[in-house]
Amino acid sequence: MTALLETDALTVEFREGGLGALFNPAGARVTHAVNGVSLSVAPGETLGLVGESGCGKSTLGRAMLRLVEPRAGSVRFGGTDLAALDPARLTRFRRRAQMIFQDPFAALNPRLTIGETLAEVFRVHRLCAPGEIPQRLAALMQSVGLSPDLAARRPAALSGGQCQRVGIARALAVGPELLIADEAVSALDVSIQAQILNLLTQLCAERHLALIFISHDLGVIRHLCRRVAVMYLGRIVEEGPTEAVFTNPRHPYTAALLASIPRMAPDGSLPPPQLLDEPPSPTRLPQGCAFHPRCPKAFALCRQGPAPALRRQEPVQVACELYPPLVNGSAPAGH
Ligand SMILES: Nc1ncnc2c1ncn2[C@@H]1O[C@H](COP(=O)(O)OP(=O)(O)OP(=O)(O)O)[C@@H](O)[C@H]1O
Ligand SMILES: [Mg+2]
C-alpha cells in the first residue's frame, strides 16, 4: 500500500546556542535528537512510537510535520516531499496532518470559550459559510462526546478529559488524514485515559484516520496500535506488528523495556529493574550500537563502526548485530 507519510533517513540536530557557540561554532555541542529515521504510516494505520524520555519521540513527531527543520533526510506526505512546499502549500498540508498534545489545558487559549476556540478553526480555514458554524460546531462537539452546552465555557471550567476532547475536536475540525498524538493521555487519570483512548480508536476507525501515537506507556500502545516502532537515542531499533514485537521482542532494548513494566509477583514483590542506568547523552552518542553500554548481550562488533541498520526479521525489522543482514534471503555463515 502507498504510504500516507514516509520519512527517509530523517535527521534532526539541535546546536547549542549562546556566546560559547558564537565564538567557537565548531566546538558547539550538538544534540543528535533524531538519527536517520526511515518510517512510514499507511492511510488509516495506527503506529505507536515508544522509548525512554529524551530518545527523540517528540522531535521526530514535530519533524514529520515540519514544525522543526530536519538537518538531513526527507518527509513525504501523500507522495509529496514537504521540503518542496512553499509556505502556502505547507499551510494546506498542515490541515491534512494534525497534532494532539500532552497538556490539553495548556494547548487551549484560557480567554476563549470552547465554542470560540473551535469556531476560530472553521473561520481561519474557511471550512464552511459563517452561518453554518453553529451547526458544524455542535456536530463536532458531539462527535468527540462533548455536550454542545459546554461551548459557552472556558477551559478552566472543564475537566482534563474534557479539555483533551476539545483538543481532539480542534484537530478533527479540519478533516485531517493523520493525527500525531504526543503523550496525549499521559496527564490524565487512568479511567479518563481509557475513555480518550476509546474515542481515538473509534474516530480513527470511523474516519479512516492514520494515527501516530507517541507514548512511553507500552500498555496503551499495545491496546491502541497495530504497529509499533521502538526508539532509542534517536534511532528506530525495532519496528513491526505490535503483537509480534510484544510477544517476541528481538532487540535487547525492546526486551528490557517490556520487562520493565512493573508486574507484581504473587508474593507482592516487584521484579528487579531491567534498565538500571540512564541512557547516554544524545550529545555524545556511543560508537557502534548506541545501546551497547547497557546491553546484556553486547559483543565486540556492537562496540565498533556505524550503528546497525534496521534488518528484516519477518514479521519485524530490528537494528541489532544479533540479527545480521540476510544474504540472498538467509543469514550469512557463522551466525
Ligand atoms: N528545542 C530544542 N532545543 C534543544 N534541544 C532539544 C529541543 N527539543 C528537544 N531537544 C533535545 O532533543 C532530545 C530529544 O528530545 P525529545 O523531546 O524529542 O524526546 P522525547 O522522546 O519526546 O522525550 P519525553 O519522553 O521526555 O517527551 C533531548 O535530548 C532533548 O533535550
Ligand atoms: Mg516528548
TrEMBL record:
Keyword line: ATP-binding, Nucleotide-binding, Transport
GO cellular component assignments: plasma membrane
Domain ABC transporter intervals: 5-258
Domain of life assignment: Bacteria
Pfam families noted in UniProt: ABC_tran (PF00005), oligo_HPY (PF08352)
Membrane topology according to the record: Peripheral membrane protein
Name of this chain's protein: ABC transporter ATP-binding protein
Keyword ATP-binding on entry: yes
Organism: Hypericibacter adhaerens
Transmembrane segments: none
GO biological process: peptide transport; transmembrane transport
UniProt xrefs under SUPFAM superfamilies: P-loop containing nucleoside triphosphate hydrolases
InterPro entries reported for this sequence: AAA+_ATPase, ABC_transp_ATP-bind, ABC_transporter-like_ATP-bd, ABC_transporter-like_CS, Oligopep_ABC_C, P-loop_NTPase
Protein family: Belongs to the ABC transporter superfamily.
Location within or outside the cell: Cell inner membrane
Main location: membrane
Keyword rRNA processing: no
Record GO terms (molecular function): ATP binding; ATP hydrolysis activity
